[in-house]
Design goal:
With 279 residues, the protein is mostly helical. The protein folds into two domains: 112 residues, no CATH class; 144 residues. Helix 3 packs across helix 4 and helix 9 runs parallel beside helix 14. The longest helix is centred in the middle third of the chain and has 22 residues.
């Protein structure tokens, strides 16, 4: 499974005109040949049809096959094909290029690839082992510790019973609660960070008004989270946003347990790094 974010997918879909069910100007045969030549995969393999059915797509159009490709192939394969598609777009659409969108897509691919070199892919990240940390040792408010511990236990139950969407929501909210607790311990550090969110008057917002995105970015800026955990935390943040059913419907987001396990690993890694603050 690749780590394409929702934003990346939406940008590529718009550039490749996938809303029509097509991919650029490819026919079935030319698209099959292009993918085969680019990454040695048969885009008309039945495994993509199976994923189409599992995700509830009405048909197995070229666009839906590419979406399924993004869902089940590795980062290296997905980003290689996207790069080739961008080259094709740039070469074929001389007078109809959306230069601004193309530049954004190129930058995203380059930025994402530099991020991927940290762990190579999510499988490497999943294999990392982190020491089990006593939540009370993080120094967050004592009254919230039992709730955090209870949520972590519930996350385990959800994962063991293959309930990925609920797992992701719990993981995201638990990470947010922990980071908010840590921020409350270090108000000056968090408040003085460049990435601290400001109100319309330029004043730093109260911590309870900060988003998970804000907490992740500032925790990284002040050195409480490393870059790898920051980047994977943002994937978790994106997934957690699917708590809104209509957003999930529009983006056709149907996570599996593998996705949830990556999110759990983000939580474990963040807790471990936060436990090292005073060392």
């Amino acid at each position: 499974m690749s780590n394409l974010t929702t934003f990346e997918k939406q940008l590529f879909e718009k550039l490749f005109d996938m809303q029509t069910g097509y991919v650029l100007d490819f026919s079935n045969k030319t698209f099959q040949d292009f993918v085969k030549t680019s990454v040695n995969r048969d885009i008309f393999d039945k495994k993509y049809e199976k994923i189409c059915d599992e995700l509830g797509y009405d048909n197995c159009s070229k666009a839906n096959r590419l979406r399924c490709f993004w869902d089940i192939e590795s980062d290296s394969i997905v980003y290689k094909l996207v790069k080739e598609l961008l080259k094709y777009y740039e070469h074929i659409y001389d007078d109809e290029k959306d230069w601004e969108l193309l530049d954004k897509a190129k930058n995203l691919v380059n930025d994402s690839n530099s991020i991927k070199t940290i762990f190579n892919d999510e499988e490497t990240f999943l294999k990392k082992e982190f020491e089990v940390i006593d939540i009370s040792s993080l120094g967050i408010e004592e009254s919230i510790v039992p709730i955090i511990i209870s949520r972590i236990e519930e996350i385990k139950i959800c994962l063991e019973n293959n309930v990925p969407l609920s797992s992701i929501f719990l993981i995201g909210s638990t990470l947010e609660g922990i980071l908010l607790g840590v921020a409350s311990q270090y108000p000056e550090k968090y408040g003085r960070a460049k990435s601290s969110p400001k109100d319309k008057h330029g004043k730093v917002k109260r911590f309870d008004k900060w988003s998970l995105n804000d907490l992740i970015n500032v925790s990284y800026e002040i050195g409480f989270l490393k870059k790898d955990v920051k980047e994977f935390s943002h994937y978790l943040r994106d997934f957690r946003n699917y708590i809104h059913p209509y957003k999930q419907l529009v983006d056709k987001f149907y996570p599996n347990n593998h996705t949830a396990l990556i999110c759990e690993q983000v939580l474990k890694a963040a807790i471990y790094e936060l436990s090292k603050i005073n060392e």
